[in-house]
Amino acid sequence: MDTKLADLKLTPWLLDELNQLGYEVVGGMQHLPAEEMLRIPGMGGHCYRKIAKALGREPFSDVKKRVRR
């Protein structure tokens, strides 16, 4: 959990936004649910998946896959 957000190679504007919000390491975002993380300006799916992997979460684990018929 001591992984720095800068080491995840996030987009520069998202990294600036997260630093302004006070997040410098991934462990500081542990308390945020997925919905709140995705509401951060500049946070897209690709960056969210990187952060979720660093947190040890399965991104979108509560979403069921659609069955095609």
From TrEMBL:
It comes from the Bacteria. This is RNA polymerase alpha subunit C-terminal domain-containing protein.
